[in-house]
């Protein structure tokens, strides 16, 4: 199993036109070099309106409603293109479930809350979180919970419904509506599907986004003697059905997203991530709750991280578009800047620190003691190693949270009351979990 599993974390330098290197060796097997319907669509588009930004390329390739990679694919797991933490081990989702319950308890045990997941994949993570809610039924018994999933993929939303809902209760579908599907989970909780976060009802909510922000389109810029120039995708003049990177001849609007004192010579900016963080921050400031974001990323230090994955292998981003996942590291410093003022932003902290603080070792021990089959024990240990090992996902993935300012204020007052020397506040995961 190990050999098959590659997660989307390997970093690859991107050979590109401004470094006077050709992106593709030109020797790819015929299969990978094939003219996909998406490639045909992009060539047609570029021929009619000119080269497109990397952000537009990413958006078209991943989420075009007719041909997009996410829309009709189940790309997760061994047979797919990549595997994610919730698919690796139940430990991951369970500890996140505990995080939400702990936040709900510490912030006043509201009589109702919404669990909102952005980009829920196969629904495994929400499923594991809901199992924790059921197990802690006595704690949550008077709380009115609903689940809201933001998903653009028709294929994945069907798989989410299979994972989460009670088969005996038929799903309500309305493709034209902002809520395109509704159902009831196995534990009797109402669940609704949306294409956009803006359509999720406002109200006291816990938001969850795992490996979602890395799929959002990035603009790429290269510093030149003439100033910043945006990287665009164009048709290779030598080969009519091949794409290549070029630099824009003059400035482009997205340049406004680059910091004035930027020191790097190549940057990626993700305005869509900014829009979503703004929306989450406004909602949390207004109605309370929290957002937990986990992804691979950096603090405004990395340069070209745009890459593709197909069949658990790195894949040239411009070859056979629509057949491979495209992704770029999340710039947490940017998310921090956007949230600043409205809500408190915590992190990023490394996944292994977050999960350790949430009690992964204790949970692993409980599950190992309960497992009667040696193969189950082996699987648990393998999953733990994948999540926690610094060489695997332990250091590459990070946790980041948005919370109301008041929540941090209360937490630090509590700490001071306990005469702690550290001025930092005590928020589970970012600090050791303490049940109140
Ligand atoms: N969170 C899951 C899946 C990660 S893959 C896990 O960890 O296993 C990315 C997910 O985001 C997929 O479900 C994909 O369909 C969804 N997605 C990608 N772009 C999106 C967008 N713009 N809006 C909503 N969902 C999106």
Tell me about this structure.
This is Protein arginine methyltransferase NDUFAF7. Pfam families: Methyltransf_28. It catalyses: L-arginyl-[protein] + 2 S-adenosyl-L-methionine = N(omega),N(omega)'-dimethyl-L-arginyl-[protein] + 2 S-adenosyl-L-homocysteine + 2 H(+). It is found in: Mitochondrion. The protein is α/β, with parallel strands linked by helices. It contains 15 helices and 18 strands. The strands form 3 sheets. Strands 2, 3, 4, 5, 6, 7, 12, 16, 17 and 18 form a 10-stranded mixed sheet that branches. α5 (90-106) packs across α6 (124-135), α9 (271-287) packs across α10 (332-339) and α12 (360-370) packs antiparallel against α13.
> Which molecules other than protein and nucleic acid are bound?
S-adenosyl-L-homocysteine
Indicate the overall shape: globular
Structural class computed from helices and strand pairing: alpha/beta
Helix content: 25-40%
